[in-house]
Design goal:
4 copies of one chain form a homotetramer. Chain A has 411 residues and is of the alpha/beta class. The first copy, chain A, has 3 domains: 132 residues, Rossmann fold, CATH 3.40.50; 139 residues, Argininosuccinate synthetase, chain A, domain 2, CATH 3.90.1260.10; 41 residues, no CATH class. Helices cover 43% and strands 19% of the residues of chain A. A 5-stranded parallel β-sheet of chain A has the order 3-2-1-4-5, with helices on both faces. The first copy, chain A, has a 5-stranded antiparallel β-sheet with strand order 10-9-8-13-14. In chain A, strands 6-7-12-11 form a 4-stranded antiparallel β-sheet, with no helix packed on it. In chain A, helix 8 packs across helix 9. The longest helix of chain A has 28 residues. The N and C termini of chain A lie far apart (78 Å). Chains C and D meet through helix 5, strand 11, strand 12, helix 9 and helix 10 of C and helix 5, strand 11, strand 12, helix 9 and helix 10 of D. Chains A, B, C, D: Its main location: cytoplasm. Chains A, B, C, D: Its EC number is 6.3.4.5. Chains A, B, C, D: It comes from Paracoccus jeotgali.
Chain lengths: 411, 411, 411, 411
């Protein structure tokens, strides 16, 4: 095959599917395979991935296992949370935001090794293929991306297992049959979709939830925490400073315990179909509520309303895979500009599935008790100003009403 | 006073403050006062308002007590919920949406009676004055609006009580002192603000909540309900058809019981200051979740994303008092257009403060299991199409990356 | 070929390229071909298309030649002009808006004839393929669309000519060689692109312009016309009522004469590349200016600003081929709502390339000389209101400035 | 008057009206007046303003005459042009953009002198009062702004003249009567409005235009110029580097000569009324066209479309006086981010009222002849990709059409 890639960097989890891909790349293209396995906080040991890669014939210098948790939270999750980004009103974009980081590493490793292609294990029906590939192309326009699921003829579980057996790929016992649903996980969230969840009318069974206690089983007593923010990013819990990934991990633990951050959702994929997913974003859900809480007192109305109006587009860009695009960077510049004073502390109540802001304070607060008070405000605000304010705001409405009446009469 | 109004229609609750206004209008302007008292579902008897008005010398034919609950939900609340409107990310606009209805009635009654002015009891610091007045001017450009709180010198509780005593206005015992906070209520929500709540750092005490059980005291067992929708509006609960107001009242009861719809919020008022409010929107919170749930399967992605991007502006217009404005009507036309197929049923789980969609189904569903399935899709979707889709979406990003590299190299 | 279409409706111009497509469909698929030739006002005789179709073996009952000019202007051009739609700041969308109409007819004829496919002559690099196909699929999800340019191997002029000669397709003398550029025309505009125009640095030669006099050759004396509008649509010129297509044709003649509506433009195609086009939109350019002129006095500020903010998205949807999409229809509903009072007359000056509004009047005018006058306004407007208006608009800015100063000092 | 200001910084033009204000401040408040006269490129000598201020008793150290032309263009005009900002589709914001600069100087001088107030000569009906005051309050929340036109009783020309005579203010002969219209000018534009122009149906007489040759009188031969851009800002004409103000002045001369940049416009003022203005923006009109021309080849589609959708809001903010607001700064951050590669050269044709881009080139160009060519593209673009691209874009439309047909059938 004359146009076969020579060296391919594969996003490798160590699981059965990407092991099959690894072997398929070797056999289909006769190419050298380099593996990249990221610790995104998915909660799995990565050393087995190394051993499995070696077993499949990957040279040690071609195996890259990288802890990207801090980078993930600092450079991807936190910037996104500055925007209060939710897709279609509810989804916190936990899968979407991890993909550009993975592509960034794949491309970097490809450049280091002089590889001519990268490969991923996303199917041809989903969003992840788009996110992986748009990011890769945006970072290296000459790179080639191989998506085996769109190319090969291993179109059933049986064929995959046969291929694995034929190539001596170890198969864990529970992987022989179909998984009841498919899972993606990282420090921000766990998503589950497919198969058992494909009927959007049927409630997801409890066993789908892997990361959060059921609200019914959560503690009967609320717990309170205080999250500190600096320029829009969370920096402490209960006064204790933490690195981004440490902080998100701690919030995940609070969220897990109190059953916070579950979402049963039907969304619109970029590729044109609707799909149903079960998401668990325990720490992220707390973080979103807290960020909104601190913005309430530190962000100006004009800035806040502009942010709110930009957010759906920003979230859509991330969902669709355009993290590395000029328009996402433009929106980020605007959002980051707004966060210069989003500094302070939020107090939250965690209880049986909910994280609720119950207090917020800041040296950067714009809240003025002097202005808002029902008591005597000592001249901070002249109520008579409101009369002029309203009259000028009403002027065009009056002119409209008069015009409409005039026209009606003339008809 | 030569430019004094002759006849004034007053938005009259029957409470102490609007009774003082009533009397003040009579004494200050020597004008005839007509009262309008609306049953918006605030949960108070209205006959006492009639008796009190009569006691204050209002002629029976000048007393208007109207049950506007169905009108309120059908013509104001439901159209707004079609938009999934939330102000500043969280507030369901329960006070804002009632004001234009009240003004509409004030203006209509004014025209019936040949009155030259309307009057309301909102203060000069809040949003309600703006909402009342913009609506009134938009409906009758020649109307005059009197806002006694911006005019009179009754600037302390003591002076108000003195005025009431001087004019034989009955004062309930618990009204002599300052109320600990101020309350507004209707079928959609109850808001509490001011005084005891003015410190946004301090958690609101439990006694502020008047309409919802505390989540901690809510039942330990979840309850499930099914809400039916037709063209974007809720029409049934558990298969039982209900009128708009009946349905919302029923949802309020579910929400009350399960502690759903509490919000502790600092918001940006249109008049330029931040204020803190405690909102309870039990039925509305359930309704919003359910409406999102039914849209998930019946609304197209393009329509949904457009709606999401228009929503913040729509919500801002309602918050700021521009219900009767051409731009709100334009947005409504767009939103209503999107709801033609938002028909079907949502199943929700209610539990200790949360209403969660757990299932949805519809004859109008756009969800296609045939397309999304992980199983063999019998040719519904050709995964190879995704390659072209991605490559063309990536083309501009590649051209950008190549350009940027070229420029960097040349520098 | 088992999955070959049986009957195909071809968008047929009668020119060499679509004649080759016609024959190719017959020979490649052995299918029955039905032709659709539209009079969109492109300024060519259509009877030759009929004769040529017959010559190529199309049965008379399979030849559809339809004058769609009124439909085109009334149902596509005018609704679009209500939005003042321009793509990327300057392009009036003359090609884009014709494509959905053609697809609509193709699909309708396919349904009449029981055809299983439609075909078009757009290439695989442009926007038109997208517009044709999205429209067709939106109107008939089961239809098949054949795009020969993406399928066949006639990839050079030489091969096309060979194919034509082999199949006795008549070739006009001037069609043997490469055309210096490619042209599309309809009642709204003429576009020229490709080959001789591919260097965006080089000024387009005068011979490219086919539909407008050069401004330098236009009359040395300005001409004035008055365009009447009713609900956002032009209905008369100089007081003479005209049908939509008649009116646009008349404006085209004015524009042609005065050299109005030329545009040399580099645009972003939906498929990801930039291309350079020369557009001539003589009547449309006058119409856009006039529509803006009448909106100036009849459209409210709130409505107008909302329209302005929606326009780029609306124009993008049309450019990208999403005329028949829910989101375009939502925007249209909003836009149409705004046009209810856009009724009146605009006076324009036409001179050497420019159409300029110089006067406008309307019974629906919102312009109030009483309010705006520098003279005594007899109390229409109280300048003191402006003080309150400004102070409340300034309040948040003051609170911000005070906060920022406070924080700076503390640092 | 106990709350009278002690020291006031007045925006002083040297003309009759601001001289009256100067004297009125002295007599009404007994305060010390400091004058600020800016050379904004309005084309008037400023030394007479100094002499007149001295004549009116201003101490030399209290007279500030500052050439702000470079600052005006560099820090205000150019940033705004990066956004292609036009208000309500057509107005280039020439007056709006000068006001924040003036307020910035007033506030700075007030702080230097320890003044407690600033004053301006804008009336209570217009936008300028809002722009002056919002800017001042945003820069110094403690400043007081005095707007004599909203306060005094000099409500007719006669009274003004009497006041001037009484206080020995020199009155130029042509200032005794009413001016036929009111004029504002700076390096970017000249606006004329009021009185003779108040009928929007009547064409503005030629004598209103002060800054541009009539297109009819402009040269019969086109002239070509080349404007160089660097990161979104114009930096050279015909290869000659120029400072911002020098460049704009040169463009003004080109525009004047060729009759470019006239606009007869009815706009919506922020204070709620419509007004008619005649604007002349000769250099700015050329600059806008040129900036669009260079963006055509250097700006990515995603960035460009986002910019287009943000522009109306950005322009509205500037028009309404919110230059110094967080939301304008957020938008500016996004816009500036987009301009990093907007570098290159545009060739324009100037002829009888029009400035037209006829060529553009850049080392930063994204235009790829290899991709767009009608000729063989050597594999740069695979036309088959378009099929998948279209099919996935169409998927949701097909699902919609199928759903709608299904529902129709069921009805």
């Amino acid at each position: 095959m004359s146009d076969a890639p020579k060296k391919v960097v594969l996003a490798y989890s160590g699981g059965l599917d990407t092991s099959i891909i690894l072997k398929w790349l070797q056999t289909e293209y006769g190419c050298e395979v380099i593996t990249f396995t990221a610790d995104l906080g998915q909660g799995e040991e990565l050393e087995p991935a190394r051993q499995k890669a070696e077993l499949l014939g990957i040279k040690p210098e071609n195996i890259h296992i990288v802890d990207v948790r801090e980078e993930f939270v600092r450079d991807f999750v936190f910037p996104m949370f500055r925007a209060n980004a939710v897709y279609e009103g509810q989804y916190l974009l936990g899968t979407s935001i991890a993909r550009p980081l993975i592509s960034q590493h794949l491309v970097k490793i490809a450049q280091q090794h002089g590889a001519d292609a990268v490969a991923h294990g996303a199917t041809g029906k989903g969003n992840d293929q788009v996110r992986f590939e748009l990011s890769a192309y945006a970072l290296d326009p000459a790179i080639r991306v191989i998506a085996p699921w769109r190319e090969w003829d291993l179109t059933s579980r049986t064929k995959l297992i046969e291929f694995a057996e034929k190539h001596q790929i170890p198969i864990a016992k529970d992987k022989r049959g179909e998984a009841p649903f498919s899972v993606d996980a990282n420090l921000l969230h766990t998503s589950s979709e497919g198969k058992a969840l494909e009927d959007p009318a049927a409630e997801a069974p409890e066993y789908v939830y892997q990361r959060t206690t059921s609200p019914e089983d959560a503690p009967d007593t609320p717990e309170y925490i205080e999250i500190g923010f600096d320029k829009g990013d969370a920096v402490s819990i209960d006064g204790q400073a933490m690195s981004p990934a440490t902080l998100l991990a701690a919030l995940n633990e609070y969220g897990r315990k109190h059953g916070i951050g579950r979402l049963d959702f039907v969304e619109n994929r970029f590729v044109g179909m609707k799909s149903r997913g079960i998401y668990e974003t325990p720490g992220g859900t707390i973080l979103l509520e807290a960020h909104r809480g601190i913005e309430q007192i530190t962000l100006d109305a004009g800035a806040g309303h502009l942010k709110d109006s930009l957010m759906p587009r920003y979230a859509e860009l991330i969902y669709n895979g355009f993290w590395f695009s000029p328009e996402r960077e433009m929106l980020q510049a605007a959002i980051d500009k707004s966060q210069e004073h989003v500094t302070g502390t939020v107090r939250l109540k965690l209880y049986k599935g909910s994280a609720t802001t119950v207090g917020r304070w800041s040296d950067h607060s714009l809240y003025s008790e002097a202005h808002v008070t029902f008591e005597d405000d000592a001249g901070a605000y002249d109520q008579k100003d409101a009369a002029g304010f309203i009259r000028l705001n009403a002027l065009r409405l009056k002119l409209l009403a008069a015009r409409n009446a005039r026209v009606r009469q003339a008809d």
